[in-house]
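agent: user wants the full assembly modeled, not chains individually. Plan: 1) parse entity lines 2) check alphabet per entity 3) run joint structure prediction 4) return tokens. Steps 1-2 passed, two entities, 432 residues total. Proceeding.
--- entities ---
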Amino acid sequence: MSRFLSFIFGLILVTATAMPVSASVPEDMVKTMAANVTTQVRAVPANSNGVTPQVQAIIEHDIVPRFDFNRITQIAMGRNWAKASPSEQREIVTQFTHLLVRTYSNAINNLRDMDVVVKGSRSNGSEGDVTVRTQMVGRNQPTAIDYFLSNASGGWKVYDVQVEGVSLVSAYRDEFTSLVSNSGIAGVIDALKKKNTR
Amino acid sequence: MKPMKFRSVTQLLLALVFAFGLASGAARAQDKVNDPFEPLNRGIFFFNEIFDAVITTPVTSIYKAIIPDPVRRSIGGVFGNLDDLYSGVNHGLQGKGKQAGTDFSRVLINTTIGLGGLFDVAGDMGLAKSKTDYGVTLGAWGVGAGPYLVLPVMGPSSVRDTVGRGLRIASDPRTYIPWQTGYSLTAAEIVHLRAANASAENLIASSSLDKYNFTRSLYLQRRESQVRDAREAN
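--- prediction returned ---
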């Protein structure tokens, strides 16, 4: 009888330690993502002219799969998302993703000397919605960067990045709102296309 | 109704700030950006872009070419030292005594051992820098930002933050020295800050669809974030 109990006890112990604590999964993901990107970008020689194709490739490989660009675009479009047709919506997502990848590549390129330290995470109300707080440390004061993640669409994905309290998605939402009121949905698509071809 | 009398321009400005501040609370509820002066602001923004391209950037390039990075950082330390003094005053006004103490300790240590701010000795000792200003203090006291403003050369601001700047200028020693030296020191600080922010500036330029909109959003969000942090109890 006691051997059976020990066996059950052992089984419980093993499964308990094997189960990941739910809060640390998104934290680990951000940690891994940041570490991978930092290591790879530092291996690429610095180019003062801007982002090299190698850095862009790193971003596309390591960052893009972990971001939910559909959701990001919907948030940025706000109430105007419903005004766009499905093909327009797809076009906006494509163009906006391209712009964000370029922006992120530029930022990473400029910040290649800095280290990312994960500070912890907090829930945003529901279980599948967390914010992972990080700090970028380098020469000057550390910069707070918060990653907002959701696992609503299968797997943890980033849907907003806030730098020192400034939400990138909110900044683009202001842009899109202005564009739609001035030149409609077509205006948004045109502006994005023009920006991406420069 | 008896007309209100203002004993000084400062009083008038503070009254305006409070008036706009109360009004801006209502504007926020409408989910629209508070920028009633947008056409004027865009004009000044455009002027600032030209001024920056024609005057500030060339001077900044020369500054960066002649003065090596470590020296530039030391120069930054001197300007930052003065900032720490105002951060201390404002942290005190925001009710954050401990942080104010840290700020004043930084000024003392960096001015003496750090040779006027050239070296951030206090930072190395663990006294972290924490910048705040009169604009954030007014916000922490409940004054809303008010309409967005773009100031000539100085850039994005708001009615509240402009009053904050005014308070800072009024209490800055550079205002009270011969104007040639005062302006030269201010110009030097502008060039220094511009050089330090060059990569951020490039990033904004390359990521925005409408630079004016983007800058406005970043500025207003940043200020609200600072005010929120200031309102938090210790």
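agent: reporting back. Chain B is about 70% helix and 5% strand. The beta strands of chain B are 148-151, 155-158.
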